[in-house]
Write the structure tokens for this entry.
Amino acid sequence: MWHFLTDLWLLLVPLGHIVGAIAVTVDAVLRKRQVSAVIGWVGLAWLAPIVGSLLYVGFGINRIQRAAVAMQREPMLGDTGEFRATQAGGEFLDELATRHPSLPGLARLGFQTTGNPLLPGNTVEMLRNGDEAYPAMLAAINSAAETITLLSYIFDHDAAGIDFLDALRRATARGVQVRVLIDDVGARYSRPSMVARLREAGIPVATFLPTRFPRLFRYANLRNHRKLLVVDGQIGFTGGMNIREGHVLSGNPASPVRCLHFRLEGPIVYELQRTFAVDWAFVTREALDKEPWFPRLSRHGTVVARGVPDGPDADLENILELILGALAAAQSHVRIISPYFLVDDVLLRALQVTAMRGVTVDIVVPERSNLPIIDWAMAPQFVPLLDKGCRVYASPPPFDHSKAFTVDGQWALIGSTNWDARSLMLNFEFNLECYDATLTAELDALIDERIAAARPLGLAELRGRSLPVRFRDGVARLGLPYL
């Protein structure tokens, strides 16, 4: 009997490996759009028996895309109520062409990519770190009269999180309708989970894409990485900042994290609310439409902006296409600041070509990120960038989680997206495309501050690394399709 079971096991294991590897090969070839991702997953499935196929099932299958299409998320919104806004039309494009002839084409690309119009008449206020962002967000919550919608990737149970919990509890007691959506993985970064505390307070809360193994999938893809807060449908906040005490630098946190967030008023707030409503409907089946969620909006400033949602569903590659278009449109200066910088060959070549055209390309990354493997994987790509004329700067601690991309002092992309495969292909993100010289100048000034304090990376330094270090970094770079 024992020999029979042993023989059966020796037969089933290789058979399972072959069947699993074939299934991964077929699925990856038919569904993956990037050749590198196909090669990576297929190679892993065949070279790592059983384990490679299981990893593909856990990390490689885009279940969100299938679920989102099946549920037809967008029609669930219904009527969007009293929202009225006039998109920026021919006069704006003519004026833009006068200042920068290549930008009208970029504006048209943004519409073709997203289907969202450019909306004039907005204010976009830059907020640095939790020291500026959290008081502004809490003040808005405390002033709420009708509705609050809040979406965050991470909502920690710490001093900062409790401040938000208390403000939301008070709003609920005033009769304000509150909805909170937290990514299921991000909700578990602290213990106890803030989800339970919100429910105890009677605040409607849901988690995005629950997983049975949150610790295993802590760094998994297909997460909702957006950060949105909308109060009374009139005041909005978005950017790269989660809710956690590490962002409040004045509090001397154990793990300080610099970041950027933005306070918005004007028609663009509709795009934040619509994005939240789509995600909320996907998770809960509740449609937030009409008033009071979508009130009438009026112009409030000079910024012309477009909402740019991105994710592994109908919005796939919105940000990537916009970035490529902006690099092609650049005439004098491109500036990028990102906590993670892991670009594919297409984006790497676009940056090289932009620099070779004579455009100054400045890239600011942290000297040391919160994930060592990311630092290792980033290093090899800086050599070809520097070789073609790009300039790369390593920003000293504290860890810089800021995200911004500016072109020629006229155009800016701000929001939650990092320059890596997870943000550009595999997670749900939200960004704003902004046409405004004043806002762009503020972002450029901040990047100038970072560059002044940073250490420029040089070719000699990177090429002079020891063979073991270069090998380690090269191996880490091979994980690009998975990172």
